[in-house]
């Protein structure tokens, strides 16, 4: 310990004023008693914390005992030389923090153990100080130095704990990513393999009966991962992050995801048996492609089951376009505006199967206008308009065009 400087006034250390002979006697006595004191502290720790594991070093000695003894010796060496701050011996206390992290415990119990050790060491130091006649002011200073030293021990343990936590998090992400790759592989069929089940167990993921797979669009390049909860597998390494939602129909799952994904957009595929997870992924990817083309609402995470019509009718574009060319050929010579009005009238009639008043109400036009258009439609398609298969094809292509925004939305449509 050295003199302390406050503003322009230097306060002399009481410990610095202790004669060197007394300091050396104090240090020598403590060093001689350090092994016994370390054992006494360890016994008390084991009594207070009986479930604390005993880890042995390469020589078979408890690492905790080695650490306590080294900590005492390093502190006393500092007192003897009175230079700078007490230096915490590296390695051992980082290992303690690392061990707490790897075993899933918090640092609270470790800090409590350190405080207990400092208190016990202080009692022995106080006894030795009386024996070698160290003045009380110097011993009080020793208390402050001891707790400053304790802060250093805690810092070392926190560093080790953080290293272990980072390593564990990285390992869990790696295992989780591999688990998702196995799950979403196209060839994955039937009951979960032993390898899959083992990987799931290693990250504590209960194998569900059903899953939904989601594809997300980042709100920003550096967006933090959404807090989807531990049960949901999330892989942020993709340009469009993926997630696997276990038991998607479980009570409260929808609401929890909605809160966690606020500010994100994307799509969650339909619930499927575990072996069909790749199918759910394909639907989610299809929905995201439609969102990127502004054919599905963006700015939120959609559920594919709520947009089945759009996904079925808009995804196979080539087939629908080819069918539209054939089915709507009679409109080719009607002109764009008139052809569009006839198409909207035809779709309203196909959907309602009603008469002119119903179709007129749906379109927001006069019934006489509808009667005129329906007569034209019958002239253009002839008897084919009464064929159930042809009506079905017409409704498919016209619904697809409405979803694309090529036809107007009906006023009375639900």
Structure description:
With 414 residues, this protein is α+β, with helices and mostly antiparallel strands. It is built from 14 helices and eight strands. It is 58% helix and 7% strand. The strands form two sheets. Strands 3, 4, 5, 6, 7 and 8 form a six-stranded mixed β-sheet that branches. The protein has a two-stranded antiparallel ribbon with strand order 1-2. Strand 4 (233-235) and strand 5 (242-246) form a beta hairpin. The model is unreliable at 4-10 (pLDDT under 50).
In brief, what are we looking at here?
The protein has 414 residues and is of the alpha+beta class. The protein has 14 helices and eight strands. Helix 10 (317-327) packs across helix 14 (388-403), helix 11 packs across helix 13 and helix 12 (356-363) crosses helix 13.
On the 0 to 100 scale, the average pLDDT is 82
What is the share of helical residues?
Answer: 55-70%
In angstroms, what separates the terminal alpha carbons? 82 Å
Major sheet characteristics: 6 strands, mixed
Helix segment tally: 14
Shape: rod-shaped
Strand content: 5-15%
* SS class: alpha+beta
Rounded to an integer, what's the Rg over CA atoms?
38 Å
């Amino acid at each position: 310990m050295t003199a302390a400087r406050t503003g322009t006034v230097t306060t002399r250390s009481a410990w610095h004023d202790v004669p060197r002979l007394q300091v050396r006697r104090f240090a020598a006595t403590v060093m001689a008693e350090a092994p016994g004191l370390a054992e006494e502290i360890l016994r008390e720790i084991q009594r207070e914390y009986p479930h604390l594991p005993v880890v042995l070093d390469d020589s078979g000695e408890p690492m905790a005992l080695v650490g306590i003894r080294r900590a005492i010796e390093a502190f006393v060496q500092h007192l003897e030389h009175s230079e700078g701050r007490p230096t915490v011996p590296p390695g051992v206390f980082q290992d303690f923090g690392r061990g707490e992290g790897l075993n899933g415990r918090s640092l609270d119990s470790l800090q409590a153990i350190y405080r207990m050790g400092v208190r016990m060491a202080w009692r022995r130091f106080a006894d030795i100080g009386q024996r070698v006649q160290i003045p009380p002011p110097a011993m009080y200073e020793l208390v402050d130095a001891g707790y400053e030293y304790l802060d250093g021990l805690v810092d070392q343990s926190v560093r080790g704990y953080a290293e272990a936590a980072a390593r564990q998090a990285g390992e869990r992400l790696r295992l989780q990513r591999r688990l998702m790759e196995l799950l979403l592989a196209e060839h994955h069929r039937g009951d979960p393999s032993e390898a899959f089940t083992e990987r799931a167990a290693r990250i504590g993921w209960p194998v569900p009966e059903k899953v939904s797979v989601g594809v997300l669009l980042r709100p920003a390049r550096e967006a933090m991962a959404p807090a989807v909860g531990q049960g949901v597998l999330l892989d942020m390494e993709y340009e469009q992050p993926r997630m696997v939602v276990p038991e998607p129909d479980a009570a409260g799952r929808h609401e929890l995801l909605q809160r966690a994904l606020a500010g994100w957009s994307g799509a969650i595929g339909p619930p499927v048996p575990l072996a069909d997870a790749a199918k759910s992924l394909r639907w989610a990817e299809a929905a995201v492609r439609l969102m990127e083309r502004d054919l599905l609402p963006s700015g939120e995470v959609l559920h594919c089951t709520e947009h089945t019509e759009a996904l079925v009718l808009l995804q196979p574009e080539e087939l629908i376009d080819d069918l539209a060319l054939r089915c709507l050929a009679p409109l080719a010579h009607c002109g764009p505006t008139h052809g569009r009005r006839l198409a909207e009238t035809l779709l309203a009639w196909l959907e309602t199967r009603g008469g002119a008043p119903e179709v007129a109400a749906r379109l927001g036009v006069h019934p006489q206008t509808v009667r005129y258009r329906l007569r034209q439609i019958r002239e253009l398609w002839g008897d084919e308009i009464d064929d159930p298969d042809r009506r079905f094809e017409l409704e498919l292509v016209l619904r697809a065009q409405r979803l694309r925004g090529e036809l107007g939305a009906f006023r009375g449509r639900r």
